[in-house]
Amino acid sequence: MKSTILLLILILGLIYVSKSTSIINTNSINVVNDVKFEPAKPIHSLYKTMYILDTNDFGLINSTLINIYNAYRDPRLINRLEIILVAFGKGYNVYLNSNPEFQPMLTSLQNSGCVFVLCNNTINAYHLNLNDLFPGVNPVPSGNGEIILRLGDGWTSIHP
Q1: Whole-angstrom distance, CA of residue 55 vs CA of residue 47
Q2: What 3 state SS string does 81-138 have?
């Protein structure tokens, strides 16, 4: 019952986000107190970012997945994104097949090109079996090592 309610909340949130995206003209210039603001414009052909999850808090996991979803739908970033979701510690819960409330969003993100990464230290510490995880989860030697190396290679990171 709880899983059904959580799944319904996630789906309704996605519907709300998709229905409300065309309300505001985001190309307009706003001037307040003689300070002009313009939204950032893409200057690179590719932007690489990793979202980081190290919690099993439903709200933070849900927000992170929605943030990734929104990034893929930002008109300035379409076909310019490479995104990975790095999970370690209790963040592994996002990938568990026993948490079906995240499965529809993970499928949507995977179809958009998102790559899912899980720390091998976490796999060992929690005695996880890859067959119990969402298909396509990629183990890496350590979540922290993955973050450090990618930051060194110019990737940006978002950690809610």
Answers
A1: 25
A2: EEEEEEECHHHHHHHECCCHHHHHHHHHHHHHCCEEEEEHHHHHHCCCCHHHECCCEE
CA-CA distances (angstroms) from residue 154 to 14, 31, 49, 96, 157?
30, 33, 9, 30, 10
Segment 98-105 shows an average pLDDT of: 95
Alpha-carbon gap, residue 44 to 57, rounded angstroms: 34
- Is 27 in contact with 39 (CB distance < 8 Å)? yes
Domains and CATH numbers, the chain: 52-160 (3.40.1260.10)
| pTM listed for this prediction | 0.81
* Helices 103-112/58-73 angle, 10° precision: 30
d(CA 126, CA 19): 39
